[in-house]
Automatic annotation (TrEMBL):
Pfam families: adh_short_C2. This is SDR family oxidoreductase. Belongs to the short-chain dehydrogenases/reductases (SDR) family. SUPFAM superfamilies: NAD(P)-binding Rossmann-fold domains. InterPro entries: NAD(P)-bd_dom_sf, SDR_fam. It comes from the Bacteria. PANTHER family: DEHYDROGENASE/REDUCTASE (SDR FAMILY) MEMBER 4, DEHYDROGENASE_REDUCTASE 4. It comes from Sphingomonas crocodyli. Gene3D superfamilies: NAD(P)-binding Rossmann-like Domain.
């Protein structure tokens, strides 16, 4: 078991994909898991029933509601910010609203949720965000806005690690490459192209991200902070 049974874990964006795998992993380890969702109420309820976790509808784009929801949880041992948006396209025609939404959900929400959680987080707590290998490398056109959000996370992770380190709180990012989810299905039209960049040409399984999240939440990872942990099959190598 990687996590303590008494650990309280809040996963932002847990109803599907990587977030759902993280909910499953931490719940299986015995943690008390609360997760948020925005649109997938049926999936969220089914996952809550399956895992014994608690689902709550909070749109991460609503920063005031998100901040209140984090505060309402009381002290959280582990905060995992997984909720994210992806909008790709020619920047000359990409809908500015979609870019704004990405910045809200991928940048503002992680920052304000992390700061709010840190107010009451016990010593040696954990803050983990799900970034992207595209924070380091964007080897195709049309990804500038997405990449800027994931690069922004990197600065946040480094800075907050400094802010909270004296309390033993670690702040890290997991940076996946292509992961088989609704956002990026392994049988999608872009798969062969994406695999062509990879040393190991397959999508990452969501459970492989969740397993690493559990490690980062464990006492063994106490000295890993301010870091980007890339799990991308060599996409950025
Ligand atoms: P999915 O689109 O499959 O799932 C996204 C999850 O986030 C859902 O549970 C969704 O909930 C939740 N979510 C999205 N927007 C909001 C919001 N505004 N408020 C609350 N919850 C929200 O994505 P993935 O699982 O693939 O991606 C998860 C994270 O991993 C993202 O940050 C993404 O950028 C990152 N990532 C993914 C990669 C991939 O290849 N899949 C690669 C690199 C990084 P609901 O359905 O209820 O709205």
């Amino acid at each position: 078991m990687t996590t303590k049974a008494s650990q309280k874990v809040l996963v932002l964006g847990g109803s599907r994909g990587i977030g759902a795998a993280i909910v499953r992993r931490f719940a299986a380890d015995g943690a008390q898991v609360v997760f948020t969702y925005a649109g997938s109420a049926d999936a969220a309820q089914a996952l809550a029933t399956e895992t014994g976790s608690t689902a709550t509808r909070i749109d991460s784009a609503d920063i005031a509601a998100l901040t209140k929801a984090v505060a309402d949880q009381g002290p959280i041992d582990v905060l995992i910010v997984n909720a994210g948006k992806l909008a790709l396209g020619d920047p000359l025609t990409l809908d500015p609203k979609a870019v704004d939404e990405m910045i809200d959900v991928n940048v503002k929400a992680p920052y304000f949720a992390a700061v709010e959680a840190a107010r009451t987080m016990p010593d040696n707590g954990r803050i983990l965000v799900i970034g992207s290998t595209n924070g380091d490398r964007i080897p195709f056109a049309g990804g500038a806005a997405y990449a800027l959000t994931k690069s922004a996370m990197q600065g946040m992770v480094r800075g907050l690690a400094r802010d909270f380190g004296a309390r033993g709180i670690t702040v890290n990012s997991i940076q996946p490459g292509p992961v088989d989810t609704d956002m990026n299905p392994a049988d999608g039209p872009m798969s062969d192209y994406m695999h062509s960049f990879m040393a190991i040409p397959r999508h990452v399984h969501a459970s492989e991200i969740a397993d690493y999240a559990a490690f980062l939440a464990s006492p063994s990872a106490a000295m890993i902070t301010g870091s980007m942990q890339t799990i991308d099959g060599g996409f950025g190598a």
